[in-house]
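Practice problem: predict the structure.
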Amino acid sequence: MKMKEVLAAIIGLAAAAGAIFYFYKFVTFEEATGGHRYGYYSLGLAAVAFVCGLLYFLGHVNQEEEIHITQ
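Answer:
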């Protein structure tokens, strides 16, 4: 694996975990006057996780190993 792929995977997984956490905080917020901040955080982190996933998976396009006829 390339360093870019490892970095994208680590940041993407951390962002996905943060998005899940902040979405949970948004859904279970007790007061009626707030909690929107957690929703914005979760949307932002989900977008970061999506972009990191794209970087990771699109790095594998056309990267197949060549198989020679004699093998």
